[in-house]
Specification:
Tetracycline Repressor, domain 2; 0% strand
Amino acid sequence: MADRVVSEGQRKRRRPTKQGAVLSERLIVDTALRLVVQHGAEALSVRRLGAALGADPSALYRYFHNTDALLLALADELIGRAQEGWKPTGDWRADLRAMGLRIHASYCSNPQATLLAAHRTTGRPHETRAVEKILGILRGAGFPNPLAVRIYHAFVDQALAFAAQDAAVLARPANAQEVDVEVWHEVYGKLSPDTYPNITSAFSLLAADMRDSGYPFALELMLEAVAARLPGTGDAGTGTTGGSDHGDG
């Protein structure tokens, strides 16, 4: 897809596709997400999308200037799905937990799209609302802005980093995933306790735990650390020391 600007008026002149559907941004995004599952990054082409939609490929330019704009829309859609049906409870810790687990689950529901876009900042409506909600949870709990921003940054990066790692596993064929799991039994399960006493002592627990994502427990560890910094707990900090002050976009 190359850059091409189409006026708002032209964009609104829509005709049904060959399948009888009216072309829309939502239809394009949903179709692209489905195709990405099947074909990965190759799905993001006007030719393939046009064929799947039953529309002239050039019609896609009415909605997205280029492939990157479509990719950002896919990422934003996953963020939006994470927020569907979510309502704050007023308990900041429960609300952050729910939001983190929702974000992680939404991205893992489409691992191929996650590998393409989890690292992107979309600047689109769903992402903007998510930033507002998470900062609102933190500020409502009593965290001052400097600390709320640092916590937000760490919270979101943790969720997306685990989502990207877990998506990389899920994107592999099932038999390939199982091969990696079997390494724990074929290699670690046969180690000598004389040489590796810690691994052999914890092996059964280790092999079972490594089959699942480490994110839920990592999230709990983060929430405990965040709670310790809540003003009034006696161990709160400003969050402005102990690291660089630049973000990652």
